[in-house]
TrEMBL record:
Keywords: Cytoplasm, GTP-binding, Hydrolase, Metal-binding, Nucleotide-binding, Ribosome biogenesis, RNA-binding, rRNA-binding, Zinc. Its cofactor is Zn(2+). This is Small ribosomal subunit biogenesis GTPase RsgA. Residues 64-222 form the CP-type G domain. GO terms for cellular component: cytoplasm.
Amino acid sequence: MQEGIIVKGIGGFYYVELQNGELIECKARGKFRKDNITPLVGDRVYIEKINNSQGLIKEIKERKSQLIRPPVANVDQVVVVFALKDPDISFTLLDRLLVHVEEKDLDCLICLNKSDLDEDGKFEKVYSIYTEAGYKVIKTNALKKEGLDELKAFLKGKITAFAGPSGVGKSSLFNSLQDKVKMETGVISEKIGRGKHTTRHAQLIRIDDETYLVDTPGFSTLDLSFIEPNDLQYYFKEFRNFIGQCKFSSCLHVKEKDCAIIENVEEGNICRIRYNNYLDFLNEILENRRNTR
Ligand SMILES: Nc1nc2c(ncn2[C@@H]2O[C@H](COP(=O)(O)OP(=O)(O)OP(=O)(O)O)[C@@H](O)[C@H]2O)c(=O)[nH]1
Ligand SMILES: [Mg+2]
Ligand SMILES: [Zn+2]
């Protein structure tokens, strides 16, 4: 058996890169289907070759992590990509994505792309909200390859997934960071002002021995219903400093008396946009529970 990593999966075929760089088209053993295990991009696997270019996945190594959206295994961290314009930033989607990242306890960097289109100081605004919440935030221009040094430094030695809505420039960034594969990039639809879901499948590439990048399809919704109502507060990073300071230990920070989170929103220590998203998400989670019970 030979060891490799799944770099792409399409229609029941998995493309496995072996340690010597060879790319083998594989099917998964029937046993996986029976056990309800789907091999994922990023999975480290053992394969048996059938011939020079084809093989069978025999074994999947235990996963270090597993993201649901995008569906990739073993990533260490996420670059959350949004565009400063075309399409406009959705703060709801950005915070949803950050909740997913925090729930998986992954490291993350917020990358605001299309810096050339930022006319009204959007970057400064978003930068201040999210650095105050405890995130690293950078701006890039994928087409002119500007702002990539900080991004490259973040990627070094790690497996990183690029995640974000369609049309923000994930594949363009991917292309500007390496010469090995050229991902297809799309245009923004004039009619709907959004991307057209150019990337259809997650794809992993190895930049050097220890550095891997995963380009993924854009998305426009993210489900939060799997999150426990009481856990959500921890996935808003900046809340953590104040949790435990509320009058009631079971405080969900909605309208309880002497709530430290609400006080800090009022004092300007917690961003109100983020807090309002917290309330919306909490409502959505509670609502969902009422409906499925
Ligand atoms: N002005 C400007 N345009 C950019 C920049 N980066 C990407 N684009 C353009 O934005 C469009 C969408 O880029 P993609 O790289 O396909 O976006 P994506 O995030 O991969 O989209 P999906 O694959 O659909 O999820 C393309 O027309 C790119 O040329 C940038 O920094 N500035
Ligand atoms: Mg793409
Ligand atoms: Zn509270």
